[in-house]
Every structure is written in C-alpha cells, then in structure tokens.
C-alpha cells in the first residue's frame, strides 16, 4: 500500500518532506503535485522506477521523460544550451513548461530519446514540488500522471491513492492540481518548436 502524505500547500512540513525524500532515495516511486498537474517521480538512477512509470502509463521507448529540476543551475548540468536558448528559457522559468534539449553526459541514458539523444527538463513553480527537490538535492525523474485511456489527469490526492495504491510507494497531496499538463517546447533543432500546448503561455516562443 502507498503511503499518503497530506502536505500544507504554502508551508510544507519539513518532517513530511524529509520522509518523502527518503522514500525516493530508497528506490520508491512517488506521485507529487506540480504547477500543472500531478506527476510520477523517482530517483535519477532508479531503473525499476522508470520501468514502473512506463508500465503505469503504458509508454513506449520514444517517450520523453522529464528531469524536474529545482533551479536553472541544476537544469544546466543535464542539458546543453547556447546563449540565445539560455536567455529564452531563463525568462520562462519557473513555470508550466517542459523544454526538450540535447542532453549532456550527466543525463541518465535510459531516459534519453533513443535517436535524438535529447531529454525533457523543467523547473516547477510549485511550493511543495520545490520543497521536495530542495530536500533531495537532485532532480526527480518524472512523467505526467496521465493514465492510459484517460483524457485528463487525476486531480485529487485521495483518488490517486485509491487508483494507484499497489503500484506506487507514496502519494503527496497538497490540494487540487490542474488538469492541464505543461506546454512542451522543443529546442533540439535550434529554433523553438511548440510540441504540445498546455498550461504555459506559448506566445513567448512563437
């Protein structure tokens, strides 16, 4: 059964955030809130965690996982950015955007696009997600919690606990999340390409 953590949305309890981080470090798969919708997350080197996410969402090998980063310094460790791209992305973070960029050698190989060698990265504008990332001291390997055959993500923590009780290790609930995933911008070809319209305003990339 999954642990259920009820976290204050503005002042996350440090003790609970510590327990969440320990769950991740010990190989657990968590569901946690972001500024777009709930996400599945595990530690970077957790191969079983990646496989579990693929299984829950029925994803193929072409799916872009996301590195959920605490800040821009952390993000820059895993992706390559030229000066123009740096300035464009910096102006849009934190926020409800996922950026697809060429990966550095530090990015886990199992989460790269098999042909393009790219990875998705984002910096969430969400107090609880930021608290978890700060406690971990490293990115969370993540994917939007959108179940197969469902048009919209689940928005209630208790509902997620009921639905995924035996396939995740913890559910972190800090109130309703939105139903719109991030806006995805692909910078791997040089110019920004809007791959998916979502919660983030795409106009700055058009």
From TrEMBL:
Xref: InterPro entries: DHBP_synth_RibB-like_a/b_dom, Sua5-like_dom, SUA5_domain
Pfam name, any one: Sua5_yciO_yrdC
Family matches, as PROSITE patterns: YRDC
Taxonomic superkingdom: Bacteria
Segments forming domain YrdC-like: 14-200
Signal peptide per UniProt: none
Protein name: L-threonylcarbamoyladenylate synthase
Lineage per the UniProt record: Bacteria, Bacillati, Actinomycetota, Actinomycetes, Kitasatosporales
């Amino acid at each position: 059964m999954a642990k259920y953590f009820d976290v204050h949305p503005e002042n996350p309890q440090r003790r609970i955030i510590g327990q969440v981080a320990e769950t991740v470090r010990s190989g657990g798969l968590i569901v946690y809130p972001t500024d777009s919708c709930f996400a599945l997350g595990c530690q970077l080197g957790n191969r079983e965690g990646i496989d579990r996410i693929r299984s829950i969402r029925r994803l193929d090998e072409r799916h872009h996982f996301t590195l959920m980063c605490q800040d821009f310094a952390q993000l820059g460790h895993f992706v390559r950015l030229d000066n123009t791209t740096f300035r464009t992305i910096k102006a849009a973070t934190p926020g409800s955007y996922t950026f697809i960029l060429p990966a550095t050698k530090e990015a886990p190989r199992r989460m790269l696009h098999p042909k393009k060698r790219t990875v998705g990265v984002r910096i969430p504008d969400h107090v609880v997600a930021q608290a978890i990332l700060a406690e971990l001291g490293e990115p969370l390997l993540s994917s939007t919690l959108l179940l197969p055959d469902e048009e919209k993500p689940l928005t209630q923590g208790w509902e997620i606990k009921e639905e995924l009780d035996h396939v995740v290790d913890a559910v972190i609930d800090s109130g309703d999340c939105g139903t719109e995933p991030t806006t995805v911008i692909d910078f791997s070809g040089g110019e920004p390409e809007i791959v998916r319209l979502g919660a983030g305003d795409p106009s700055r990339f058009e």
